[in-house]
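Components:
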Amino acid sequence: MINQLVKKIEELKAPIVVGLDPMLDYVPEQIKEKAFSEYGETLEGAGEAIWQFNKGILDATSDLIPAVKPQIAMYEQFGIEGLKAFHKTCAYAQEKGLVIIGDIKRGDIGSTSKAYAVGHVGKVQVGSKSYRGFEEDFVTVNPYLGSDGVKPFIDVCKEEKKGIFVLVKTSNPSSGEFQDQLIDGKPLYELVAQKVAQWGEEHMGDSYSYIGAVVGATYPEMGAALRKVMPKNYILVPGYGAQGGKGSDLAPFFNKDGLGAIVNSSRGIIAAYKQEKYAKFGPEAYADASRQAVLDMKEDLENALVGR
Amino acid sequence: MINQLVKKIEELKAPIVVGLDPMLDYVPEQIKEKAFSEYGETLEGAGEAIWQFNKGILDATSDLIPAVKPQIAMYEQFGIEGLKAFHKTCAYAQEKGLVIIGDIKRGDIGSTSKAYAVGHVGKVQVGSKSYRGFEEDFVTVNPYLGSDGVKPFIDVCKEEKKGIFVLVKTSNPSSGEFQDQLIDGKPLYELVAQKVAQWGEEHMGDSYSYIGAVVGATYPEMGAALRKVMPKNYILVPGYGAQGGKGSDLAPFFNKDGLGAIVNSSRGIIAAYKQEKYAKFGPEAYADASRQAVLDMKEDLENALVGR
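Structure:
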């Protein structure tokens, strides 16, 4: 799946992943009205609204992008009905040929991490049959519990030719509180990155590992340092756009081959129609606004990579 | 809710939480057969089997225990159908008057943590109405992202009079890989514990804070040190029993008032009938075996606390 991701990034010239993190506030009124008229102002109605919203964006952008990254929390907040919308979104993105990075940030003790891995990127056994609980190709994993919380994901990914992105340096303002603390002169995030490089060797694709890392666009200097620590690991870069990361900040996350990083934008794309820049599209054409935002992001990244 | 938890622990003389972490392997054949005959060997059948299994245990133990801790991964592995069983289990435990600690180990950037908090311990807004996605009283939270990944949980918990347990030192073998690393001479877990103490002051109950910590029974010396760093924070102690923690290891986790800690046992209770010690109950009476295991654990803890 990492080979497929790299191939798609090269073909489309778009190291871009669209974060499908729908808030109900982002969903245009016409979609909410339709969903609520059918299911009422209920959790089911909310699930239907975000699913229809996502479907529109997928229909409008899937030929431009290699991957989507649904953030499961945005679905989980609506309980079971929200998670049904998550599942539907992943299945539809898969039909469209997209690589699905489930942003689930799970991680637990060994036996529990195994259950998460089986549910999200593997198959669960029920008597003599086996099933997929959810349909993702990659998931994000929290490293706080150490190797035995990460290894079960790697084991399942080996069987399935799928992968993970381990949180190394996250994009949020207080990420440094623990992640930047110095251990023998090196920040914790670098120690985690060294482990990611090591875990990555266990599960290599053609040129990159199936085991990647998350490093926030909001910390470009750290991105440059971490790029060197993890030369064979893909870096998933959140924080571009709405969180403050700019195209020009992103060059350090890439290798000299122009590969090695995939940049996420969520709000900046899925709620593009709410920005002044794309206001001309209006809520009815929200998906066209998203398409334009993808094209603009692609150009921004191309300039950043050419200009370095 | 922390006041209620403390009160129940005192009344029942049982600082015990039963981990509802059902693997299909734990579920006696008669329950699986019934579920599969009704729904087939499907995800729905698996969900039904684990729900019926849990119901039996809840019916047999709820008068003895203050709380249950369902581990969401064990349900999530079966996809939507598993999560329905999680939801049903929480709702039934609530009917039985139990405090529900959702072992979800979530944690993300601010806006995303807020969605998790809203979904698990708060209410989500849908148009003019609001709903609970899941029914938990406490949830476990991963601190790797720092304060702004934890604060949204605290904010929602303040509104709802609910609480969280933050991962400090986990029970698994490799937990030391990152958590034990020294920062200015102090391990990372202690730095996290200091933050927990600080966050805890923001949301105090009568004698203990709504913000607790997770510290594994498998690390009793660290438990003693952390008890002092977090005198007002309840410690949720996993790792007793099947993971290797013994009753005699647990005294250091408690304060002099005999309070301040709640010890989890999962497999040791819910799959008790599989142990030689409780084999006489047999699979038919698995829930009675669980009841006996709770009584034995209660005695083990009483001895540990009296003997210190």
